[in-house]
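User: Can you recover a sequence for this backbone? Please restate the input before giving your answer.

Assistant: Of course. Working from this structure:
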């Protein structure tokens, strides 16, 4: 399925996750965040950068691992991305949905 973000046609899977991380940029992330009802702040972007860094290193993500990362507590993670922190933040970050997400 194709979606248009930041005037660019992006390949997404059925759940709206980017198929190609190379198509991601901050404008794309911002538009996905808007779709998800998230008003991005500096804290949000710090979490997004951490997720992308872990993805590049091929580190499997889980809420527990993110809570232990020192980047964000589990409580704050849920405050920043209330409707499913790992699913929503991964989508905004342009990375595949983590295996640990249902």
């Amino acid at each position: 399925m194709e979606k248009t973000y930041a005037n660019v046609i992006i390949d997404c899977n059925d759940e709206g996750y980017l198929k190609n991380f190379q198509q991601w940029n901050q404008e794309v992330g911002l538009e996905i965040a808007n779709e998800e009802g998230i008003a991005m702040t500096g804290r949000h972007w710090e979490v997004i950068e951490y997720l992308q860094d872990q993805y590049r290193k091929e580190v499997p993500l889980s809420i527990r691992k993110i809570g232990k990362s020192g980047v964000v507590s589990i409580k704050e993670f849920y405050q920043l991305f209330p409707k499913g922190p790992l699913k929503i933040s991964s989508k905004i970050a342009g990375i595949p949905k983590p295996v640990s997400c249902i």
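That completes the design. The chain has one domain: 2-93.
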